[in-house]
Specification:
Length: about 425
Amino acid sequence: MYCVISFSHKNLDISTREKIALPQDKIQDFYHSLFATFPNIQECILLGTCNRFELLMFAPSYNAHAIIDFIASDREIPAPQLRAGAQVFFEKEAIEHIFSVTSSLDSLVIGETQITGQLKSAYKLAFDLGFCKKQLTRVMHFAFKCAALVRSQTQISKNPVSISSVAIVHFLSLSPIKDKVAVVGTGEIGILCVKYLLSHGFDVLLLSRTLQNAQAIQDELQNEHLSIASFGQLPEVINSVRYLFCATGAPHTIITHDMIHPCEFGRIWFDLALPRDIDHIEREDISLFVIDDLQEVALENKSKREEELQKAHHIISEQVVLFEQWLKSLDVEPLIKAFRDKAKQCCLDEIERSLKKGFITKDEEDRVVRILHNAFNKFLHHPTSYIKTIKESPESDFIIENVKKLFDLEGEEFFQNPYKCERHNKND
């Protein structure tokens, strides 16, 4: 049974999402603890982004409340608080939710393509660690296929938007003067902020904990309005520039109260990280915006794309139906019957042709039928036995699809190279 337990920007504020977020080096320990506590869980993928924390699972049965309480205990969050912010999906609803998330219909910024890559990375990690096997792999293959269809058949991802672009749109709506902007962090969000700001004519100072990363970006962009600085200059920078964008992967705040000094000018800061990079501050000379403050801009973006959203949801509904049909087609018994029936029919057709041509007489028909029947039974014995033995193995889907193709049976080949081809693509 498929199940998703979801905590997202829809139901949890940023302070709770910060607490539930897992550092990369803690994910494997979380998996081990989860599987040790709930041995009936057979497979799991943990998806953690700045806007969501989700467990995609496969198990015979679930105690969703117990799993939520386990997460609450692990992340030291009051269980009632976490329960109130949880969404739980089972079976068809779970599949539909996974397809929607992968296709960026459940994102804060509808149509952003970053989520597909994030899910591929989460899938790759779970697969490589052995926590994701055949059942969730099936869903992931279809989910990535579904996301590709949504991108190609709708305008959802045309003129792509992201947290970075929404933040820049909001920043520009504040009518900033053309002054220097500091960007802290050389991850995907930070790099996009740099590009957007440069395209709008701002001078940008990029700070990175690893100066070589900032240097590589400067070399790539070759823009005279971009300069770089080391992380050690952060205390000086935050008190000398009007505008600041922070988006690092630090597990704790990097700008604390004691680092902030009074300035003669007002400052506008954007904290696009989770956990947050900047301490909660209340100062008249600083306007601080975090991810959740961008909801209004994101909702405006969603309303403009409403027609395309309907098309996208229709595609997802179709793909959910196709996925269910495809799962049923993987039953090996009907497949075995199909290729054995085809072999039998070929024998009968040849006997009928031989009778018409006079190669055999009517009196010989029964004996020839028995001979051919024994021959194709003997020929198909090994394929039949083999398919029965591999039906629970991870590679069975791939083999079954190719048996269909080999014997020219109905059904298209779905996996080109299972557990690899769609597992991870850095271009997404």
